């Protein structure tokens, strides 16, 4: 049992067109356990617009696998649920799903996509973050 988490590590990054005005960006912080092919953590979706989609926090779980070939050495899938508020003037909220997938190199840079209520973003960069605390401040 002590070997179960022996190779676990933290991975942080962003999925999306960083620097593009109004583009949704998914910032992730994940605990990766390669021996179990598992990842879990938090995704924060931000978008420079007012409304219920401007800041969403999602607890996620997923899988990570080695590809064994090419420049992308790992593939990752994430899934989670969060509470989505209806846009004004409506009142209320409902559980909504978040999904993400990406192909990355050993430095956690690559390409991927994500989807959440009424949004589907594909073929965008995945970039590793060295200091997540500064990025989210």
3D architecture notes:
The chain is mainly β and 137 residues long. It has one domain. It has one helix spanning 132-136; strands at 9-15, 25-33, 38-46, 55-66, 74-85, 93-104, 110-116, 119-128. An 8-stranded antiparallel β-barrel has the order 1-2-3-4-5-6-7-8. A hairpin with a 7-residue loop joins strand 4 (55-66) and strand 5. The radius of gyration is 15 Å and the shape is globular. The termini are far apart. The mean pLDDT is 90.
Question: What's the pLDDT, averaged over the residues?
Answer: 90
Classification by helices and strands? mainly beta
Order of strands across the biggest sheet?
Answer: 1-2-3-4-5-6-7-8
Order of helices and strands: EEEEEEEEH
Strand content: over 45%
Low-confidence stretches: none
Radius of gyration: 15 Å
The domain count comes to 1
Spatial gap, N to C terminus: 37 Å
Total helical segments: 1
The number of strands is 8
Which terms summarize this structure?
137 residues, eight-stranded antiparallel β-barrel, 4% helix, mainly beta, 8 strands, 1 helix
Helix and strand topology:
Layout: E1 9-15, E2 25-33, E3 38-46, E4 55-66, E5 74-85, E6 93-104, E7 110-116, E8 119-128, H1 132-136
Antiparallel strand pairs: 1-2, 1-8, 2-3, 3-4, 4-5, 5-6, 6-7, 7-8
Summed up:
It comes from Flavobacterium cupriresistens. The chain is 4% helix and 57% strand.
């Amino acid at each position: 049992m002590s070997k179960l988490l022996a190779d676990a590590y933290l991975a942080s990054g962003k999925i999306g067109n960083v620097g593009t005005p109004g583009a949704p960006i998914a910032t992730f912080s994940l605990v990766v356990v390669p021996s179990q092919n598992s990842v879990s953590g938090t995704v924060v979706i931000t978008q420079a617009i007012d409304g219920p989609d401007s800041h969403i926090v999602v607890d996620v779980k997923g899988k990570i696998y080695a590809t064994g070939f090419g420049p992308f050495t790992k593939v990752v899938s994430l899934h989670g649920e969060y509470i989505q508020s209806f846009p004004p003037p409506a009142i209320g909220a409902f559980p909504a799903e978040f999904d993400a997938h990406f192909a990355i190199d050993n430095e956690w840079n690559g390409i991927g996509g994500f989807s959440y209520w009424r949004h589907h973003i594909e073929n965008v960069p995945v970039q590793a973050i060295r200091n997540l605390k500064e990025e989210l401040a």
